[in-house]
Amino acid sequence: MKKIMCLFVCGLLTAGALTGCGSSADTTTDSGNTTTDAAPDATGDFDTSSDISVVSREDGSGTRGAFIELFGVEEKDANGDKVDYTTDEAIIANSTEIVMTTVAGDDYAIGYSSLGSLNDTVKAVKIDGAEPTADNINNGSYTISRPFNIATKGDVSDVAQDFINYIMSADGQQIIEDNGYIKASDAGAFESNGASGKIVVAGSSSVTPVMEKLQEAYQKVNSGAEIEIQESDSTTGMTAAMDGTCDIGMASRELKDTEIDGGLTATVIAKDGIAIIVNKNNPTEDLTKDQVNSIFRGEVTTWDEVK
After folding, report:
1. What residues does the PBP domain cover (predicted)?
2. Residue spans of alpha helices (H) in the chain
3. Phi and psi at residue 277, to the nearest 5°
4. What does the DSSP assignment read for 215-253?
5. Which CA distances in Å does 134 have to 21, 110, 131, 277, 279?
6. Using CA atoms, how far apart are residues 212 and 218, in angstroms rounded to an integer?
7. How far is CA 67 from CA 114, 199, 232, in A?
8. 87, 298 Cβ separation under 8 angstroms
């Protein structure tokens, strides 16, 4: 009886001790670790020991080309040839929209996208302390940016030239700024030449969203123009322009020497940032260029290694 009573009293004392400790809200996790609600884990339910899901664009993507160059994931080998060192474990997405959807659906994913195409389904992180904004690109504090180019070969039709004039006019450049990009021209107001006919525009999925806005606005001032936009990637767009299967090619990068040698003339219509994006449940707010480089090369594979 005394033994039972002693155990009962010990149980009460133990319960009291635990209640006293409860003032600091200690709890024990399944793994046996103790946490304190008064000073919660900053990562919440985010498991930093989880593998990083790297999401990249396909070969031929202008965004990928600009990304690997700007972050040093691409290097020249001993023969002077450029080599892309993106990890073989990367998930490959063939458009900006798919990159964002993939990152939005995976707590541990990281990817990159056009700044102007960002939406609130993902979180854009700072790079070396600078937020990815048009203002920061203009003032030079955010250095991860690239041009949006259109390319033509030889003489274009009157209606294609009219559309290009619209894009570069104050009217077209305002649409570019309104959609989060940086304008490339200070030309005056648009005056149409009145031409009619069909224009085929093909290429970059990063340029496509703003091109669709430009198309919509232009056709309101020139209803005689019919514009077909074919979304693919920068390399496909440049090839189509060289082959003559489109009137205007779109590229979200500088043109390659082979494309210029193929007879293409480039016109920068806007400047765009490349945003590094993570899932909204990821507590990461700031990364360095070196950290991004290591992640996309596959040298850093879990979030707790990001230091």
Report:
1. 49-170, 191-305
2. 2-21, 62-70, 96-104, 134-139, 158-168, 170-178, 208-221, 234-243, 257-261, 289-297
3. -120, 145
4. HHHHHHH-TTEEEEEEEE-HHHHHHHHHHTS-SEEEESS
5. 51, 21, 9, 16, 22
6. 10
7. 10, 30, 18
8. yes
Torsion sign, CA atoms 136, 138, 143, 146? positive
Contact 238, 152 (CB under 8 A): no
* CATH 3.90.25.10 assigned to 147-271: no
Do the domains 53-145+275-305 and 147-271 sit in the same CATH topology, yes or no? yes
Phi, psi of 88 (to 5 degrees): -70, -15
Q: Position 173: which residue type?
A: Q
d(CA 304, CA 79): 36
pLDDT tens string, the chain, 307 residues long: the values are 433 333 333 344 344 444 444 433 444 444 344 443 433 344 469 999 999 999 999 999 999 999 999 999 999 999 999 999 999 999 999 999 999 999 999 999 999 999 999 999 999 999 999 999 999 999 999 999 999 999 999 999 999 999 999 999 999 999 999 999 999 999 999 999 999 999 999 999 999 999 999 999 999 999 999 999 999 999 999 999 999 999 999 999 999 999 999 999 999 999 999 999 999 999 999 999 999 999 999 999 999 999 8
Torsion of CA 215, 219, 222, 224, to 10 degrees: 110
Q: Which CATH superfamily is domain 53-145+275-305 in?
A: Periplasmic binding protein-like II (3.40.190.10)
The gap between the terminal CA atoms of the chain, to the nearest Å, is 59
Q: How far, in Å, CA of 49 to CA of 56, rounded?
A: 21
Residue spans per domain, the chain: 53-145+275-305, 147-271
Q: Are 146 and 271 in contact (CB under 8 A)?
A: yes
